[in-house]
Fold:
Amino acid sequence: MSEVRRDIVTDTWVIIDPDNTDIPEIPHEKPEIVQSCPFDEGNESQTPPEIYAVRDSTSKPNGPGWKVRVVPNINPILRIEGELKKFGMGVYDMVTGIGANEVIIETPRHLENIFELPPEDIRLVLQTYRTRITDLHNDKRMRYILIFKNHGHLAGSSTIAHTHSDLIALPATPVRIKLKLKGTFEYYSYKERCLLCDIIQQEIEFGDRLVFQSDRFVVFTPYASRFPFEMLILPKNHSFSYKRITDEECNDLAYVLKKTFNSLDRTIGIPPYNLILNDSPNLLPRSDYWTTIEQDFHWHIEIIPRIYRTTGFELGTGFYINRLSPERAAALLRANL
Structure:
């Protein structure tokens, strides 16, 4: 019989099929035929001028010699220029489209997946995330910095298959983050403990959804997983903001990401997926956002394979249907570490 499970963090529900043992087939996507990729080294003139780069000391901006490069999106949905203004449109609200839209090019080589990089190169990408979040948090117009990866057309990727991340700075906090903030705040208000710290402890203790753990991070399939092989990566030490990640933690997280994706690849092959960094909001514009946010929120990374399309049921109800239980998915991933 199916189980209807509640996500304790967001107070949303998922229908799980605990009896199914069939491994879902990943969608087949045609390989990219590369003519000239604007993200390859040597093609820097094909992108807007760089905002930030990790490059050799002898190299010049907007030329070869870089290891990670950040450029504005060529078709930004939000722009950093201008003043943040709020308007009332009758019963509706609107703010000007202020924000930032950046592309983090993760390697000068034409590779499709971040896990193909050596750990030391993945570390540079993770440190670049920290640098860009820290910089944009100095602008009080930016309420939330979202960093994510879309891999594969079903996951909403662009036509450029070169491995990269997207950064969007928003003038408002996203609804799903607000749900997580509310859930962790209410738990802390009642128990005076971080909800995600308690979840980490329980997942390690029970072990049936644990994929693996390193010295500083833990990887598991959530109890109310929305998608087959969905995973969470969390730092073991409580930290509310990604910009506080240390270089040592970046080293460990690089190892964790590579090991996680290698396990997923050996289990079902790399499907279309989204990787999402769930961070705290920018506290500069609202220092009173939550009085306990440093104690109750815990940053984390979601890896969401996009094996099935979202249907009218999910859109109409907010429920998800997951036909492979997180316990089964975790067992398969552990077997392929």
Q: What stands out?
A: The chain has seven helices and 15 strands.
